[in-house]
Amino acid sequence: MDNRPGVTVGILSNGWICEGLCDALMRMSHDPRYRLVVTFSWARPIPSNRQLLVRGFLESDHDYLIMIDRDVWPYRNLLDLIAADKDVVFFPVPVYRPGMEEPPIVSVLTPLDGGAVDFDEGPFKEVESGGSVFIIARRVLEALPQPIFEYQFDEWGMMTVEEDINFCRKARAAGFRLWAAYTHPCGHIKEVDLVDMHGRVREWS
User: Fold this and answer.
1) What are the structural domains of the chain?
2) pLDDT tens per residue, range 112-124
3) CB of 47 within 8 A of CB of 163?
4) How far apart are CA 140 and CA 69, in angstroms?
5) What is the number of other CB atoms lying within 10 angstroms of the CB of residue 103?
6) Which of 81, 100, 149, 161 has the fewest CB within 10 Å, making it most exposed?
7) pTM above threshold 0.85
């Protein structure tokens, strides 16, 4: 009998994933410490995609679910952090938000104290929320009522809270703690306007 912890790596994909993520998955699949399964979800919108992964995971006997967006890739092996047995672990992922933030590249992580993200912090620091890449212990997914991942809307039908932030709020309200692994940053592929980016970089310097 194989007594190694079971890990499901779920990729939110609609037919495409970035090259760096392919390489990361190859390396993780050869890690001998865990019973590892890589699966891909194809549902739309995003909450349905995440829920598809959650349902498949809960139907298995695995202990941890790792979710990774298709355009993100871990620079280091995320499996190194499983043994810490945290409720939820997020990872530093840069997010490009032109016209919404200044500078337009921000972190997906929100520290508890409202301070700046410190990439030299480590190995774990508690956070209020995160997204894109995270490890969830089975106990969290079993404790929260379904659907775990869902948008919130206002009276006009406009989305007010994204599904990952909503998940973070539910998990914290249920008494679980959210952590960031600043030692394991991730890359993020986005199409950008180089003229706009050139001007913005000049503003930062």
Assistant:
1) 6-204 (3.90.550.40)
2) 876 666 656 668 8
3) yes
4) 20
5) 11
6) 100
7) yes
